[in-house]
Amino acid sequence: MPRVLFVLPLLALAACAIPSSRSNIVVVTDNKAVVEPCKKVGDVDGGSGLGGVLLLDQARDSALARLKIRTAEIGGTHVLSPVAALNWKGASTAGIAYACPN
């Protein structure tokens, strides 16, 4: 039993999205015009599997953080995703990562 109590906090910590300086500069938008001059670098997903457990505002914040982190990891500067919309209802956490010129 003591081993389980030690492992549970580690598992919870591993599930956290930890931003970096690279992910902090990633722009998340739902406006296609913003990414028109950019080059697509890949598809990203901000899902965690905990969406049903978190409140909608917390789920949106977590999805935004994961989208930014995953976009930065593949060299993107912008991500086009419905999560950027203020009226997002949790239907999709997918996005398309782009590398945009400065």
Topology readout:
Layout: H1 2-14, H2 21-24, E1 27-29, E2 39-45, H3 56-73, E3 78-80, E4 94-99
Parallel strand pairs: 1-3
Antiparallel strand pairs: 2-4, 3-4
Keywords:
single chain, 102 residues, alpha+beta, Translation Initiation Factor IF3, 3 helices
Question: How would you summarize this macromolecular structure in one to three sentences?
Answer:
The chain contains three helices and four strands, in the order H-H-E-E-H-E-E. By secondary structure, it is of the alpha+beta class. It has a single domain, classed as 2-Layer Sandwich (Translation Initiation Factor IF3), CATH 3.30.110.
Overview of the structural elements:
The chain is α+β, with helices and mostly antiparallel strands. It has a single domain (2-99), classed as Translation Initiation Factor IF3. 34% of the residues lie in helices and 19% in strands. It is built from 3 helices and 4 strands; from the N terminus they run ααββαββ. It has helices at residues 2-14, 21-24, 56-73; strands at residues 27-29, 39-45, 78-80, 94-99. It has a 4-stranded mixed sheet, with helices on one face. It is globular and about 30 Å long. Residues 10-15 have low confidence and may be disordered.
